[in-house]
Design brief:
alpha+beta, 60s Ribosomal Protein L30, Chain: A, four-stranded mixed β-sheet, 3 helices
Length: 137
């Protein structure tokens, strides 16, 4: 099966949302070892509630805010505690929040993703920029 080439073309203004950074995936989810199923931990529940409350204040009341394929830029305030940090570990919970709040129609619609540490955000803060993504022939 072949897929058409994708090219990023911003069609509309970007949607930018800021909220607290999520905990690591290991702290975000727990495992029920009897059923082998993952569940949202208390840390995860607290983060989702705090991040959702803050993000909702910044979003327009339409759902989904950006329909169709999207390009997403994830920026996280650098954490300065001399521990080794995994930037990729922060994407999944952040994307799940965008879906839960209907900012995007589903994380399967993310066609391009950029993740980076930034110095212009306080520690443990996240900024997400979402733009439409167009398939060009």
């Amino acid at each position: 099966m072949t897929y058409p080439p994708y090219q990023f073309q911003p069609l509309a203004p970007s949607l930018v949302v800021e909220f607290p950074s999520p905990p690591s995936v290991n702290k975000m989810y727990g495992t029920n070892w009897q059923t082998r199923r993952r569940f949202l931990s208390k840390d995860g529940e607290q983060w989702f509630k705090a991040a959702a409350t803050e993000a909702k204040r910044q979003l327009p009341p339409t759902a989904p805010c950006v329909p169709g394929p999207v390009a997403v830029t994830y920026e996280f305030g650098r954490i300065l505690d001399n521990r080794v940090r995994d930037l990729m570990n922060l994407e999944k919970a952040t994307s799940d929040l965008l879906v839960k709040l209907s900012v995007i129609g589903g994380d399967h619609l993310i066609q391009q993703a950029t993740l980076r540490w930034v110095n212009d955000l306080p520690e443990r803060r996240a900024r997400v920029t979402i733009q439409p993504f167009v398939v060009t022939p």
